[in-house]
Amino acid sequence: MSALFTLAYAMGRFTMEVIAEMLNIKSKPKRGFRQFFTTKETDTYGIQYDVVRNNDRVALDVAIYEKGRIVRRDKGTQKNLVPANFDEKFDYSALEEYENIQGANGGVAEKPYNQLIKNTAEGVRDIDDAFDMAEELACASVMLTGEFPIRKGTTIDFKRKAASILAYDAGRDFGIDTVNPEETFILAGDFLVNEGDAAASEIFTAILGPKVWLKMKNNPIVQKQADIRRMDHMELTTGSENNTAPMESLTPQGVYSAGSYTFRIWTYGGTYKDESGVTHGIMDTNAMVVIPSSYDFDFTYCATKAMQGKVGSRWPKLIKGKRSTYKIENEEECNVQIGRRSRFAPVPRSIDKIWTATILQ
């Protein structure tokens, strides 16, 4: 079996080739709520963020040379946030190919080396999939509760208004025949316009748990409304043609008008498995979330720490980027690992442009 490189040269290239191969492996789609957050990166370890509340400030007419009003940002909305460090490692020295990469004359055997890259890339892809899910769960938490669990035991509360997170009320239960779901949608629109400073003419996005959608489309009042309107502005089952832009992981269910507001309806049935292997829904299947098209949400990646310099004189340095990669040679346990780190935080800058309600028990 022919050798490609010396072992030292091959291992020097290994991490770069693994990442390149990993990027060619299709990841699992998990961007239901994450897609509403704009990606940003910072070269700092933490971030300072502002949460913008409602209430437009009207500019004053000021005569020439007259002192105008000094506009100062409310310091109460400025916060510092240091995200947790997500860190996962893959032990590629445990793979069979690792034992067989050294060929004749100390070179590297081509076939085992290429297979080692492929198998390691799949392991690293699994790590990135886990990070993607952590991002999705973080965004889901903000959208559903207004909180971000920054690390175990510590939660950032973005202080959503009480009127934006409604608990279950039988008067809003779409499964009860006498309840008119249109009233709940109007309630959402009123909050987002009056408190969130959205325009009534905006197209609102309504994300429903699967059970909520099932009860809504079978609600007799909704069915009667659809019949009266001849489905012209309430095409509840025609799918993507009514929802102009496709959304990852969300299922389009059509357009619904309520009062003076228009809603594009989507359902989200995404799931994840916890550390015990138990499957959970990413979104509460009994809930609904509504946002206007003018939302402003950020998803910021903070810098991660990585060792820089030559062996014997290395020091930690902050690395800007979505994720960083490192290698560990563990002499004590005689293994070699490739690791990935990521530090991130979802920040709903327009915090009053989210409305959530638990519709079913």
Task: Characterize the main sheet.
Answer: 6 strands, mixed
Question: Would you report the number of β strands?
Answer: 22
The strand order across the widest sheet is 9-22-15-10-12-11
Anisotropy-based shape? elongated
Approximate strand percentage:
25-35%
Nearest-angstrom radius of gyration?
26 Å
Helix content: 10-25%
Query: Count of helices?
Result: 6
Spell out the helices and strands N to C.
EHEEEEHEHEEEHEHHEEEEEEEEEEEE
Structural class: alpha+beta
Low-confidence stretches: 55-78, 237-244
Description of the molecule:
- By secondary structure, the chain is of the alpha+beta class.
- The chain has six helices and 22 strands.
- A six-stranded mixed β-sheet has the order 9-22-15-10-12-11. The chain has a three-stranded mixed β-sheet with strand order 2-16-21, with helices on one face. A three-stranded antiparallel β-sheet has the order 5-20-19, with helices on one face.
- Helix 1 crosses helix 3.
- The longest helix is centred in the middle third of the chain and has 36 residues, at 110-145.
- The radius of gyration is 26 Å and the shape is elongated.
- The chain starts with a strand and ends with a strand.
- The model is unreliable at 55-78 and 237-244 (pLDDT under 50).
